[in-house]
Amino acid sequence: MKESDDEIKAIWEKQYPLKAFVDPSNFKTYDELKEKLNRVITGTQSTVTVDSVDLPPQTTTSVEMPKVSESKPASDEDDTLDYFSKLADED
After folding, report:
1. What are phi and psi of 56, to 5 degrees?
2. Which DSSP string corresponds to the chain?
3. pLDDT for position 35
4. Per-domain residue ranges for the chain?
């Protein structure tokens, strides 16, 4: 505890104003908060149609799709199965 009024006054003058933090304009109203809570709880959300959204213009460029490699022929699978069956027969 400080003993003199001068020490107390020096500490008091070092304080910063908190008005900017507690100003009511920085907070939403009760109705806005209630409406947002109800949206979150009920899961409803405002949807926008494609017609009303401003989309950037599309450029038409031809994009070549990558070719898909073909799977192995059945003969390769048969060769693999034959190999393992031969190994099993050796025992």
Report:
1. -70, 150
2. ---SHHHHHHHHHTPPP-HHHH-GGGS--HHHHHHHHHHHHH-------GGGS-PPPPP----PPPPPPPPPPHHHHHHHHHHHHHHHHH-
3. 92
4. 1-45
Whole-angstrom Cα distance, residue 5 to residue 11?
10
User: How far is 91 from 88, CA to CA, in rounded Å?
Assistant: 6
71 vs 88 pLDDT, higher one: 88
Question: Could you tell me the CA-to-CA distances from 10 to 37, 56, 62, 80 in Å, in that order?
Answer: 45, 60, 74, 89
pLDDT, tens digit (0-9, with 9 covering 90-100), for 7-60: 999 999 999 888 888 898 899 999 999 999 999 998 876 666 666 667 677 776
